[in-house]
């Protein structure tokens, strides 16, 4: 089954670009919320708190994009028709690398990866689009994401790296005898 | 799917409930929940016209996490319950969800006959090749040499069940495999499965990071199948039997007649209530 996916540079209108940006921010926030909830449920409150913070920033950015879209009619795009390079919204945190005992530094690294991917997406759009207004907006968003990356890098050094046996659980999920 | 009243402008999050899932962090089922709600938003069906029916197991908790009618039913009996519901209320969009143990072992016979009956509903099996809720025993799809459970320290020594080949042989009308690591692709397949008339079988490879942590590797080994969807059962069978279980895509879309019994009211609700009076 060969699927032809739209490239970021093929985004044709400002409305379509903002629909991408809005989904990117909303899905990032939803992802952080979900991981935060799972950490809270599994008794990792410190990391849950961090993910809730990331979620709050995501919602804030989404509302900024929403403001930019005021007066415009954003198109409806099916989840699988977005111009994401690997099919998934680039800032969505990689839930597959989450662990119930993960440390704050690992949570920050996960967010760093997500922010870096968001930056790369906007940078690719800015570099490849032929629409001047999209180029302008994408460059602006790429700079913002670069700033988030820088802030996270600063944040990470304040936390100790995960120890060697960070996932050792003295009371592990029970295995049948 | 028969024509249902359209609902406009609901987003995926409108289909999620306020309950926080208790699945382990990193579990693939989060992603399946996201794919399901995205698909339902795309299908634009009113929430009150959808029912999610499940059996027992980690994945079967999914009705609670949706903002829809749901029934967390009996182990292995989700398909029986869903069949009854769809036959009695053909106007509803019926989604059945569960895991590999629930669907292929405890409910194995219901699975075969649901495929054979071809009632218009979509069955999503979140397959992690393990019984997670009971803490990590081998399931019907566990590889024969999996020796991580204390109950099967030398592996099961039994060939894994081949759900899609069985579904095809038993008469399912739509057969697909997806990967939880591709939520948007899975949403697309679920949408297609719901729209296709008859019994649709969607196997989702959904990693259990707690009891099968090696499944984290699936993100590197699962790939899109190099096939064109066929309506020829023999072609699909040949392809499925040669497949290693890690390819994703829609393998088969058949055209068998859908089971839709003519229903005529034989008793009023008041009469029925009399029969059940204590």
TrEMBL record, chain A:
Single Gene Ontology MF annotation: metal ion binding
Q: Which domain of life is it from?
A: Bacteria
One Pfam annotation reads Rubrerythrin
Every copy of the Rubrerythrin diiron-binding domain together lies at 108-159
Q: What is this protein called?
A: Ferritin family protein
**Which species does the entry assign this protein to?**
Defluviicoccus vanus
Taxonomic lineage: Bacteria, Pseudomonadati, Pseudomonadota, Alphaproteobacteria, Rhodospirillales
Automatic annotation (TrEMBL), chain B:
Q: Which UniProt keywords apply?
A: Oxidoreductase
Keyword presence, Iron? no
Stretches that traverse the bilayer: none
Q: Which GO terms describe its molecular function?
A: oxidoreductase activity, acting on the aldehyde or oxo group of donors, iron-sulfur protein as acceptor; thiamine pyrophosphate binding
Q: Which GO terms describe its biological process?
A: cellular respiration; small molecule metabolic process
* Cofactor(s) required for function per UniProt: [4Fe-4S] cluster
Thiamine pyrophosphate enzyme TPP-binding domain location is: 56-204
Q: Does this UniProt record's set of keywords contain NADP?
A: no
UniProt protein name: 2-oxoacid:ferredoxin oxidoreductase subunit beta
